[in-house]
UniProtKB/TrEMBL annotation:
Membrane-crossing residue ranges in chain numbering: 16-39, 51-73, 79-98
Domain of life according to the entry: Eukaryota
Full protein name: AAA1 protein
A single GO molecular function term of this UniProt record: L-amino acid transmembrane transporter activity
Species, as recorded: Nicator chloris
Biological process annotations from GO: D-alanine transmembrane transport; D-serine transmembrane transport
Lineage: Eukaryota, Metazoa, Chordata, Craniata, Vertebrata
Keywords from the UniProt entry: Membrane, Transmembrane, Transmembrane helix
Length: 133
């Protein structure tokens, strides 16, 4: 969110749309790669919808062409898009990967989550005590 606010203050809307569209296409391709990997490594798990592998492989071929073309034609926009994605890495390590956090960090993350839920009306907030694993 902070990176998006900075970009909106500094750049124009067209540039922001270019950054976000590159990020979206990158995430779509990674999702399809994940689908193929799961079909290969765990073929027996339940899938409510199962398609022929030719469809995601064809999609990945077009995706790779468009992504390479984007990287070639607008490397700066793609680089900034990758930097925007990489701003989420510290958040992942702070919130998910780091298991033995001090209680003050857990309380801070819980209050930020609750505040964000109230601000965006996305989930009915259940503040006042997180369930421990």
């Amino acid at each position: 969110c902070l990176a998006t606010l900075i970009i909106m203050l500094v750049g124009d809307t067209y540039t922001l749309i270019n950054y976000v569209s590159f990020i979206n296409y990158l995430c779509y391709g990674v999702t399809i790669i994940g689908l193929i990997v799961l079909r290969w490594k765990k073929p027996k798990i339940f899938r409510p919808i199962k398609v022929n592998l030719l469809i995601p492989i064809t999609y990945l071929a077009f995706w790779a062409f468009l992504l390479i073309f984007s990287l070639y034609s607008e490397p700066i926009v793609c680089g900034v898009g990758l930097i925007i994605i990489l701003t989420g890495v510290p958040v992942f390590f702070l919130g998910v990967y780091w298991r033995n956090k001090p209680k003050c960090v857990n309380r801070l993350i819980e209050s930020m989550t609750c505040w964000g839920q109230k601000l965006c009306f996305v989930v009915y907030p259940q503040c006042g005590g997180a369930e421990e694993e």
